[in-house]
Specification:
The structure is a homodimer of 170-residue chains. Chain A is α+β, with helices and mostly antiparallel strands. Chain A is 28% helix and 11% strand. Chains A, B: Keywords: Endoplasmic reticulum, Secreted, Signal.
């Protein structure tokens, strides 16, 4: 018997890949396709991508630009689909220039970067005050920071929201 | 008066750049030259380069390959000169395939990675047991982990030394 009021978290969304999944085999020609490895990893070759989390935090703080962190996996079809839309959308690419950009295919030890789990694709914003903008979410209640390709306009609006910095409380 | 036996550390070597130096101006065409940014940053485009320190440590431990960490700066002429020799030397590039490779233009918070200071270029090896091989040094007493282009054979011999793993003490 189910207790009254007990929430049913059964909504299954398409945006879920297990981190470090190796379910999709790489083919033999992939080495040639992938090299040299880029810091953009296909999310926008004309953007300036930061390598390390520490540098990203430092740059956000010192340049007063918000930080946009994309967690993804190269063999995750949901990540791939979002990446295609993201990299081909001019408004997104233009907006991204106003951010310190970093993308990870590997989790960092900072638990603030997985407030509701280590799934991909997952997009988080960090204010230059180094506060994670946990309030800027997508539309899936069980994976708050996930986006599908069809959510691109919500992502654009969330990027604009992130550009409005947090004000310190008086 | 100098105390007897007090070591004179006055040897000045050419391999020293201050981290985050901006003494060399970038020219206007550099944006076009640099993009897309690569993880190799010119140290070997055919090698598999890791992005984050955490992933590098994980991969070293799980694959039982030693980790080779190169700290450098893109506007440091000593780093550039070493990179040219490193990337064009077939023996180095072949040896590098037996390592987990990472290069940083930004310091990590792990103080084990700067046993004698934060200079560049600086090359450190980490054993798959996650022990920094502080014993594998170059030939400059004041910057133990620095190499000049003319030290390439010493670097090759040090890579071979790093491939001989540490054995746990019985």
């Amino acid at each position: 018997m189910r207790k009254p009021g007990m929430p049913l978290i059964l909504l299954l969304v398409g945006v879920s890949c297990i981190l470090a999944s190796d379910s999709v085999q790489t083919n033999s020609s992939e080495k040639e396709d992938k090299f040299p490895l880029t810091l953009s990893r296909g999310w926008g070759d004309d953007l300036y991508w930061i390598q390390t989390y520490e540098e990203a935090l430092y740059r956000s703080k010192t340049t007063n630009k918000p930080l946009m962190i994309i967690h993804h996996l190269e063999d995750c079809p949901h990540s791939q689909a979002l990446k295609k839309v993201f990299s081909e959308n001019n408004e997104i690419q233009k907006l991204a220039e106003q951010f310190v950009m970093i993308n990870f295919i590997y989790e960092t030890p900072d638990k603030h970067l997985y407030p509701d789990g280590q799934y991909v694709p997952r997009i988080l914003f960090v204010d230059p005050s180094l506060t994670v903008r946990a309030d800027i979410t997508g539309r899936y209640s069980n994976r708050l920071y996930a986006y599908e390709p069809s959510d691109i306009n919500l992502l654009i609006s969330n990027m604009k929201k992130a550009l409005k910095m947090l004000k310190p409380e008086l």
